[in-house]
């Protein structure tokens, strides 16, 4: 067995969360203890919580549902199957967004989806990093090509939020909401985030929509998160938080929403935004690139711009990826 195959088989055995002795594993994998240890080390290096006990037994800190391309494909809607050009599942990438941005320049067609069990340099909004330890979340991106100019994409990041929120509701997360422009929250704690990046290749516009959802974060990853957060394990319990089902639901909703957006832009989805909007009627502070303003949110317009009512009663509109919004008490 080559190293990669050995590592994968070891993980498939350990994924049930049970304890296995070194002897048992060596026998099943037909390898010497040194090779077993090397394979285990490869997983530890990827941030997997693999416990090696002093008596020589191996166990994952908790059971893990590995991403399974076939299971995801089996749960896709007819519409998603038609529009998807490929679905790739990796165990490690630097970032699913970076990967698909490169592929966009290699002329990959619209509808490419890529998921990764773990990201070495997961990226968040405003240059932040995104914690992506092995199997702890759903980390994925969709490449989509659009006609027209970049202004045609206005509101697409909110539309992506709608797709994510729809998928989470179907999974059973009743209280999911969206904080403008696209933070995915549950009871005001961050459950996921969206990073939209656009570019052009051969004169045509493309977008990579990256989504990161917290499924079951290990303690060491949570120490690096500087805001209230939550994961699906806490909301639904470990069993219900199936990453394969979530991945399929997410792809189905992303395709449905992107198709709808193609036909009529954000105006086609603005009404649905209200179902998930956690900002409307709230007093907020907006951090703009060069200023900070406060006011009460009065919803969004047909392009997805935030409508903010100032102390003078005037409404100002705000659009752009580099704006962040904080709720005021
Ligand atoms: C945020 O800061 O709220 C956005 C986080 C987006 C993270 C996802 S994980 C999959 C995709 N690949 C990345 O590098 N980032 C996005």
Tags for this model:
329 residues, SH3 type barrels, five-stranded antiparallel sheet, seven-stranded mixed sheet, alpha+beta, 3 domains, binds biotin, 15 strands, Arc Repressor Mutant, subunit A, BirA Bifunctional Protein, domain 2
CATH class of the largest domain reads: Alpha Beta
The count of β-strands is 15
* Count of the separate structural domains: 3
Indicate the mean pLDDT: 94
Task: State the strand order across the main sheet.
Answer: 4-5-6-10-9-8-7
Task: Give a verbal description of the structure.
The protein folds into three domains: 58 residues, Arc Repressor Mutant, subunit A; 207 residues, Bira Bifunctional Protein, Domain 2 (BirA Bifunctional Protein, domain 2, 2-Layer Sandwich); 49 residues, SH3 type barrels, CATH 2.30.30. Strand 9 and strand 10 form a beta hairpin. Helix 1 packs across helix 3, helix 7 runs antiparallel to helix 10 and helix 7 packs across helix 11. By secondary structure, it is of the alpha+beta class. It is built from eleven helices and 15 strands. The protein has a seven-stranded mixed sheet, sandwiched between helices. It is 33% helix and 26% strand. The longest helix has 22 residues. It is globular and about 75 Å long. The site of biotin has 19 residues, from helix 6, strand 6, strand 9 and strand 10.
């Amino acid at each position: 067995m080559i190293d990669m195959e050995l590592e994968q088989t070891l993980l498939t055995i350990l994924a049930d969360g049970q304890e296995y002795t070194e002897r048992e594993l060596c026998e099943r994998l037909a390898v010497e203890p040194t090779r077993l240890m090397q394979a285990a080390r490869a997983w530890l290096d990827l941030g997997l919580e693999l416990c090696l006990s002093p008596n020589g037994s191996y166990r994952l800190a908790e059971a893990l549902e590995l991403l399974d391309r076939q299971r995801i494909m089996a749960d896709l809607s007819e519409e998603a199957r038609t529009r998807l050009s490929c679905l790739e599942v990796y165990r490690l990438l630097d970032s699913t967004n970076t990967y698909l941005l490169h592929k966009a320049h290699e002329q990959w067609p619209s509808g490419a989806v890529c998921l990764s069990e773990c990201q070495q340099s997961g990226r968040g909004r405003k240059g932040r990093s995104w914690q992506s330890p092995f199997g702890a979340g759903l980390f994925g991106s969709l490449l989509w090509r659009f006609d027209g100019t970049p202004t045609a994409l206005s509101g697409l990041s909110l539309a992506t939020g709608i797709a994510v929120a729809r998928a989470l509701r179907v999974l059973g997360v009743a209280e999911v909401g969206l904080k403008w422009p696209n933070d995915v929250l549950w009871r005001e704690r961050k459950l996921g985030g969206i990073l939209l990046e656009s570019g052009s290749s051969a004169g045509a516009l493309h977008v990579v929509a990256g989504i990161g959802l917290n499924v079951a974060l290990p303690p060491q990853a949570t120490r690096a998160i500087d805001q209230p957060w939550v994961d699906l394990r806490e909301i639904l319990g470990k069993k219900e938080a199936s990453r394969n089902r979530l991945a399929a639901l997410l792809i189905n909703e992303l395709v449905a929403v992107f198709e709808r957006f193609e036909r009529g832009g954000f105006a086609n989805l603005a009404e649905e935004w209200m179902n998930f909007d956690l900002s409307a009627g709230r007093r907020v502070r907006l951090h703009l690139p060069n200023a900070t303003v406060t006011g009460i949110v009065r919803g969004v317009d047909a392009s997805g711009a935030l409508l903010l009512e100032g102390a003078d009663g005037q409404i100002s509109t705000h659009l752009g990826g580099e704006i962040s919004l904080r709720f005021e008490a």
